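Hey, sorry to bother you again with one of my protein questions. A protein chain has come my way and I'm curious about its shape. I'm sending you its amino acid sequence along with the backbone structure tokens. I owe you a coffee for this, so here goes:
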Amino acid sequence: MRHILSFILLCFATSLLQAEGLTDAEIQKWTKAYQAVVNWAEKEDIEDDLNADTQSTEYGRIFSQMMEQTSTNKHYNALVDVLDDNGYSNPEKWSATGDRIMTAFMANEIAGSEVEVKQQLQQMQSMMNSGMIPPEQKAMMEQMLNESSKALKAASQAPEADKQAVKRNQPLLESVLGGNE
């Protein structure tokens, strides 16, 4: 019973944290830590180990999913040390903040073109249903369609306050994440 109560309180606290929008300071702190992780991974030549993806991507949980997959990796403790050196004693806090930033970043990237993107996805679906596409290509298109739909859904769930905070920090985020140039 005690474990159930703890779990409920943890879920409640997490939802309260997400109810408040991201701050500029959080985004800047997260970006600094993210860049440190990228630099460390490149220096150690382990980008492929950290990017090993055996599951499909959950676009609303990109960084949390990466941390979960990395938790059994031989480099996990070093990764946690890099995060700790950059102000994150709790790697789950870093990944949850990254999830929110990435979701809002994706939402801002597609803002204003949602209708066009949905139309393109519908056109792809029509092409696949036409029977004129070879099975191998159809399978690849189905996967692309599925991934695009999941990304759109995740982006649509970004809180407005997070999108505004990300927009204020867009140049910084684009410098480390890429994006519209």
Notes: The CA atoms of residues 52 and 177 lie 19 Å apart. Confidence is low (pLDDT under 50) at residues 1-18.
